[in-house]
Design a protein that fits this description.
The protein has about 140 residues and is mostly helical. Helices cover about 50% and strands about 10% of the residues. Strand 2 (about 60-65) and strand 3 form a beta hairpin. Helix 2 packs across helix 3 (about 45-55). It is globular.
């Protein structure tokens, strides 16, 4: 008697692309905080972190093998979400970018910025106006 094994379905090309895109995003960002980790670091309730995500004070993505909701660590200071992010998120979303595309744009290195690194690094260094100007250019 031969034993039959059910073949697992092959992922579609879209699923492969999504998985590859998520892996790139995860490595581009580097350090992520899950909702519980962010709450612990900031000393707030889980519901407060979820509200920050809902209010778009920070953006989150599903990361890792278990696809848990996580926020890039650079989106926070010791006191909470970076104040310059919310308006920057709005400008980028108005340009038609999804949340994952916004995170990707913020973390993609750009040698023409005033601070070495990515737009998030320029924001953290106080160059909010320059970053938002470049974000507005995406709409055109």
């Amino acid at each position: 008697m031969t034993e039959q094994h059910a073949a697992s379905p092959e992922p579609s090309p879209e699923e492969h692309e999504e998985t590859d895109g998520r892996a790139v995003l995860e490595s581009l960002v580097g350090e992520w905080f899950t909702v519980p980790e962010a709450a612990e670091r900031l000393g707030v309730a889980l519901s407060r972190i979820r509200q920050m995500i809902a209010d778009r004070e920070v953006l989150a993505s599903r990361v890792g093998e278990r696809r848990v909701v996580a926020v890039p660590a650079k989106f926070f200071t010791e006191d909470g979400p970076r104040s310059e992010l919310k308006g920057t998120f709005t400008v980028l979303a108005d340009s038609g970018l999804t949340d994952d595309e916004i995170i990707d744009w913020l973390f993609t290195p750009d040698p023409t910025l005033p601070v070495p690194g990515a737009p998030i690094d320029s924001l953290r260094a106080g160059h909010k106006t320059e970053v938002r100007r470049r974000a507005q250019e995406l709409a055109f």
